[in-house]
Amino acid sequence: MACDLCTADGGEVIHRAEKYRVVLVHDAHYPGFCRVIWNGHVQEMTDLPPAERSELMQAVCKVEQAVRDILRPDKINLASLGNVVPHLHWHVIPRYRDDMHFPNPVWATAQREADASGLASRSALLPALRAAIVRAFGA
Q1: CA distance 129 to 35
Q2: How distant is the alpha carbon of residue 8 from its chain centre?
Q3: pLDDT band at 85; cut points 50, 70, 90
Q4: Mean pLDDT of the chain
């Protein structure tokens, strides 16, 4: 079975390291939605040795901090589901009280219509977010 995250980047690559990559997901309703994707095909965190688990989680935290600093969300959702794509990756999702799904997960039924002005203002911050992620990894 082909793995989507083994054969494609999974989004716009912002940072690529030897063992993982950070991508920006182009989701019109969730500007700033990022993924940190382990490059090797493993399914679970415990498939990695402890040092690599730590390296991956440090990367997730760097992305979370960049998202918080630039987008100023009300909450950040971190998720490593892998039910659809069984390849280790973490979602870093900025959440706002006025987003379509809040307080439910972004994969749940929408609670309200999208706020076009909020989406536009958040989308305008994406160049700054890209730059902040690059700086976070010292590249």
Answers
A1: 13
A2: 16
A3: confident
A4: 95
Number of structural domains (the chain) is 1
pLDDT reported for residue 81:
86
CA distances to 49, 62, 68, 83, 124 from 129, in Å: 30, 12, 9, 28, 10
Q: Give the sheet arrangement for strand 20-24, strand by strand.
A: 12-16, 20-24, 34-38, 89-95, 75-79
Residues 6+ positions from 28 with CB-CB distance below 8 Å: 114, 119
CATH number at residue 87: 3.30.428.10
d(CA 116, CA 137): 32
In the predicted structure, residue 82 carries a pLDDT above the cut 80 = no
Helix 126-136 and helix 50-71: axis angle, to 10°?
Answer: 140
Q: Which two tokens stand for residue 125?
A: 């911050």
Range with lowest mean pLDDT among 36-40, 60-64, 81-85, 103-107: 81-85
